[in-house]
Specification:
298 residues; 14 strands; Carbamate kinase; eight-stranded mixed beta sheet
Length: 298
């Protein structure tokens, strides 16, 4: 089927607009946190895999960190096991941890790897337990109760990151592989931990000195009080938006992850609507972008 003249011009416009960005980001690392609708919708999952292969083909080095909460919930439900959440964090007892490892480390991870490879990429699946990629420790938090006393909360096998083996990831990137990382870690005694995928993506971006950290979400990006998308904001503006309550609730941890990465030297962090097909390419290769860009340069 031949293209009409206008369609051909539109394609040429997109290609020429992307050229400066391809030149600017060639050789740079892009860390993408992949989850939500982008992962569970088959058409979006397909477009994501193609985007990642295209990025690698034009000389950018994508690293994928994935979630999988809905898939974990589905298997837990099928097994008749429930897991509680405290302040949005899944309490991970030993049986839940087995399911988390099975779903994130095997089913979800291998599905993403397979999709990328089907489109010509060389993806390689990893968990944080492989080659000591993510050294973790038990996550603990003291919460201030209504009576003024503090109570230590136990989340079970939930971990926080102590260190990341950047040299392993760098070796894979230099060998033309696309690392696909499940957010699982282990401590020196071999205990396994479930770690927040946004946090892992942010830390990976930090240790690789990534050009960009991209968090694919189920929202358009950071919105102002009128519900309008804020396309480019500074670290200071983000802090002000948190302070005045514009950014609140479940968005705060995601934004905090982006802030931490930018403050640690990542050039920019992006909150992007993963429900849009080819969201990754649109954010990287177009002038308008798609979501919210956070940097220290505004």
């Amino acid at each position: 089927m031949s293209l009409d003249h206008q369609s051909a011009l539109n394609i040429a416009k997109v290609l020429t607009e992307s050229l400066p960005y391809i030149q600017k980001f060639a050789g740079k690392v892009l860390v993408v946190k992949y989850g939500g609708n982008a992962m569970t919708d088959p058409a979006l999952a397909e477009s994501f895999a193609r985007d990642i292969v295209l990025l690698k083909t034009v000389g950018i080095h994508p690293v994928v960190v994935h979630g999988g909460g809905p898939q974990v919930d589905a298997l837990l439900s099928k097994l008749g096991h429930t897991s509680d959440r405290i302040d949005g964090i899944r309490v991970t007892d030993a049986p839940t941890m087995e399911v988390v490892e099975m779903v994130l480390g095997a089913t979800v991870n291998k599905s993403i790897v397979s999709q990328i490879n089907r489109h010509g990429g060389q993806a390689i699946g990893l968990t944080g337990k492989d080659a000591n990629l993510i050294n973790a420790k038990k996550f603990t938090v003291d919460k201030l109760m209504e009576d003024g006393k503090t109570q230590s909360l136990d989340f079970g096998h939930v971990g926080e990151i102590r260190s990341i083996n950047a040299s392993l990831l760098q070796m894979l990137i230099n060998s033309n592989f696309i690392p696909v990382i499940a957010p699982l870690g282990a401590d020196s005694e071999g205990n396994s931990y479930n770690i927040n995928a946004d946090t892992v993506a942010g830390k990976v971006a930090e240790v690789l000195r990534a050009e960009k950290l991209m968090l694919l979400t189920n929202i358009r990006g950071v919105l102002d009080k009128e519900g309008e998308l804020l396309t480019g904001i500074s670290v200071q503006q983000v802090n002000d938006l948190i302070k005045d309550g514009t950014i609140h609730g479940g968005m705060i941890p995601k934004i905090q992850c982006a802030l931490d990465a930018v403050n640690a030297g990542v050039t920019s962090a992006h909150i992007v609507d993963g429900r849009v097909a080819h969201a990754t390419l649109l954010e990287v290769f177009t002038h308008e972008g798609l979501g919210t860009l956070i940097s220290n340069k505004h």
